[in-house]
Amino acid sequence: MQIDFIFSILILIFSVVVHEVSHGYVAFLQGDNTAKFAGRLTLNPLKHLEWFGSFLLPLMSYFFGGFIIGWAKPVPFNPYNLRNQKWGEALVAVAGPLSNICLALFFGLLIRFGFAYSFGEPFIQIVAMIVFINLILATFNLIPIPPLDGSKILFSILPNNMQNTREFLERNGLFILIFFIFFLWRFLLPLVSWEFMLITGLTA
């Protein structure tokens, strides 16, 4: 179990770093240099990790919930610098979960088409762990609760007459998110397990 946990943490760190760099890179492609000037367009994990989201929360979720979840420091960007003012913020937001989906698809298809089996059972277990953790990250971050990416996507499509909804979510998002993690997360796990089975052909 200790070895599984160490591998899980290492995979989580790699995955959240890719997630955050993807945010910054899409913002950079749209004309915003904020992440670049902050030194965040790098895969160096020391530039991205934080104590609660990258270490304490994964420990708590693993030992109390049996799964691994976490996040890194959000990559800064200035929405006013983006060329696409209507959808730019949503594009930056969706880049993070999309990067995790791409990682899950790449490694998952190694299992689905049998390439992973050439390297033995331990390799298959590591690859499966990469797929599962990245699916958790993608699915979790698409939930429309601030400060998760899904909220920014939601806010981009909300009509102006629903700004009260946005203000309520932004004001109470952290409390709603904590409640969700500890009391409602189990309802999301079946969806992640289904995604895992769809990609790899294996049961989670």
From TrEMBL:
Keywords: Cell membrane, Hydrolase, Membrane, Metal-binding, Metalloprotease, Protease, Transmembrane, Transmembrane helix, Zinc. The chain crosses the membrane at residues 6-28, 49-71, 91-111, 123-143, 172-189. It is found in: Cell membrane. GO terms for biological process: proteolysis. It comes from the Bacteria. Belongs to the peptidase M50B family. This is Peptidase M50 domain-containing protein. GO terms for cellular component: plasma membrane. Its cofactor is Zn(2+). GO terms for molecular function: metal ion binding; metallopeptidase activity. It comes from Candidatus Zambryskibacteria bacterium RIFCSPLOWO2_12_FULL_39_23. It is a multi-pass membrane protein. Its main location: membrane. InterPro entries: Metallopeptidase_M50B, Peptidase_M50, Rip2-like. Residues 9-114, 123-180 form the Peptidase M50 domain.
